[in-house]
Amino acid sequence: MKYHRALLALAVSAGLSGLAACTPADDKSADARPAESADEFIARVNKTQKEMTPEITSAFWLSSTYINADSQRVAAAANERALATTNGFIEQAKLYDVSAQKPETARALTLIKVGASMPAPRDPAKLKELTTIASGMEAAYGAGKWCVDGDCKDIGQITDILADIEGHSYDQLKAAWEGWHTISIPMRKDYQRFVELTNEGAREMGYANTGEVWRAGYDMPAEDFQAEADRLWGQVEPLYEQLHCYVRGKLEDRYGERGQVDGMIPAHLTGNLWQQDWSNLWPLVQPYPDAGSLDISAALKKQRDALLAEMVAEAGGMSKLTAAEQVELERKADREMAVRMTKLAESFYTGLGMPALPESFYTDSMLIQPRDRDVVCHASAWPMNTEGEVRIKMCIKPTEEELTTIYHELGHIYYYLAYKSQPPVFQNGAHDGFHEAIGDTIVLSMTPEYLASIGLVDKPLLSQEAVINAQMRMALSKVAFMPFGLLIDRWRWGVFDGSISPENYNRAWWELKAKYQGVAPVEPRGEEFFDPGAKYHVPGNTPYTRYFLSHVLQFQFYKALCDAAGHEGPLYTCNFANSSEAGKRYWAMMERGASQPWQQTLRELTGGEQMDASAVLEYFQPLQTWLQEQNQGKDCGWMPAGS
Ligand code: X8Z
Ligand code: ZN
């Protein structure tokens, strides 16, 4: 995701620095008062941001879609300039008495001072070092390959192996999982230095460390934020434990003793490199195989192959084509399929009454993986300027996971479009979890009925068994994700505050994985590895608690939009597609951007001011009951390492 670093790089997000040893409140002496009034200052920040954003986003776009030394240099230099400008703004923002300003100005001043993802040191040499390391780590991740005897696989190929649990042996899955985790070994030193440098930036602006800066961006005291996240996790933890117990049982049925490690799930057996989404275990855990197919990936692959067959027939048949021409046609089919999937997602949004995507979205986005160069395949959505020029960058394949990721990315895109009339300082999510939740809320509306309406599954059966199937499908992606969404920043907060030292990077990582997720590697992962670096958001420096919050918020949004759409009946049956009332409410919320505290924005949509996971539990109530029955008599839970 780029909005935190690109769009708002200047004034809000990319890096913060400030008056050393001086907190925002204690520097209001007359001689420190700047020449500009606060209103003039904010006007200048907005103007600068509008002017500088296109150049920065272009530099970042190039470095993510053409990984080489030149693009890294250009991106690092652009980032350096942006961060230096930001640092100046932050210093100046601290000179104003926020309480003496009109509300809009006060809000803008507050936003400038909080929530940076990359607090940058003031020392120019260190700033340059920081941006060089940042560009280098992201590029190393994007270009990462696992090579055996000169045969190299990229993240897409490795992902495909792990996802296909039926088609690979236990040892093949293990080799692929370990293979990807070789790419981050060289990042360890850089990451350590990155932590030192951003911590210095954080301290210069009056925070204890980078983690505290991250926690300060939620319109509540930074010191209360961890407890808030813990409270939400406490609400869903029992549901997660039931899902864990059931899935582990299925793995033990399949793999015997090797299907668990001290009650934990082996890291290479969840169908996903990071164990964050278990959807690919569907063939193993599907509750009622005869209660209707939900195999969306198969339907998408079939469509893509049909497209190719059409193209081949048009060209006079396969025998008329050279090998090179065949490859070209395959690419064309891949691209057309990616466009088709994107338009499907777009049609959900336009069906709610939101605008069609601008033409440039389709001409300028990167939808499939290029063949001739390395790119960062990790999906992201980009506001290229402050006026609604938007793109996504993905390596789309015809799978269910990719389809839902498109819906997710378009959530970011429509948020950008909705708040583009706000001044640039307010062009952001109410908080970062809101940004992540927009598209996922739509994904919750992808019920079997909706999927049937777009021709991806057969008309669903209306049995209790079909309900449990549908619930399991959602839980494998949503519930399985939650502890993962929490633990990444538990690790980083510890790294930033020094409680996790470089000698313990990997040990601490696996302790947290054990504690929250109940997953474990089947062989020791010592400090010769740097496993956190094998997850994009660590080298990419994207804060991650946003995704945890999003997984709570999206159920609250969903419930509110279902109410708006006049839905009756159990929450999990709601599909608000084509409801203009739901669309209106959603858009009105999105238009606010960051112009007011998120609590107020949440109230306008849902009636409440608190994040609350009770909608998650309401949604999954049938599955939770079912899981409890299935797990009866089983020895659920696990023994985390070190306990
Ligand atoms: O990074 C993403 C999006 C871009 S903001 C593709 N997500 C997280 C991840 O992949 O780890 C979406 C779900 C969680
Ligand atoms: Zn996202």
UniProtKB/TrEMBL annotation:
Domain of life: Bacteria
Signal peptide location: 1-20
Residues annotated to bind chloride: 218, 546
InterPro entries membership: Peptidase_M2 (IPR001548)
Keywords carried by this UniProt record: Disulfide bond, Glycoprotein, Metal-binding, Signal, Zinc
The keyword Metal-binding belongs to this UniProt entry's keyword annotation: yes
Any single biological process term in GO: proteolysis
Record's protein name: M2 family metallopeptidase
Organism annotation: Arenimonas fontis
